[in-house]
Amino acid sequence: MWLTTLRTTTVPVMTCKPRYLARWRADCIALALWRAFHGLRQWESQPLKPGDVGNRHTNERQTGSANVPALLTIRVEPVSEVDIPDHSIRLWRTDYEAARASMTDRERNALDTWLLRERYTAVFGLHRTDRRIRRLLDEDTAEAMMKIQDFVDVVAPVVA
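^ thats the sequence. predicted structure below, dont judge the formating
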């Protein structure tokens, strides 16, 4: 009998509650967006190869959103209390704009107001006594970040 082992190098195994994972990712996205908004981080440009078609991110030039496709690669820190593994996600600028377009006016205004803050404030956080990821800010800001979180791509887990 032959035994084969599969290496999971593309998607980390998630044993945590999906709601907690989504909230924690949303908070990591919030930090990355806040840093980008305040000039502490840059969108990573991804130049197109000649003849590169069929990718949902290749049409950024036509939408007027940017000169070249750009993304934020975001590390999602592990949280052992709720079984969230260390991994990375990508947020493309076109997906961020699509998420903004899907928001209500209240959510978009709450997000813009939050981005204008001089100091970063977490949107979600770990409540250690009951081992839950909880909302720390108003519902509109949290819902806006959750909508953005729905547009991210999960990439390979971070290997130390």
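Confidence is low (pLDDT under 50) at residues 1-12.
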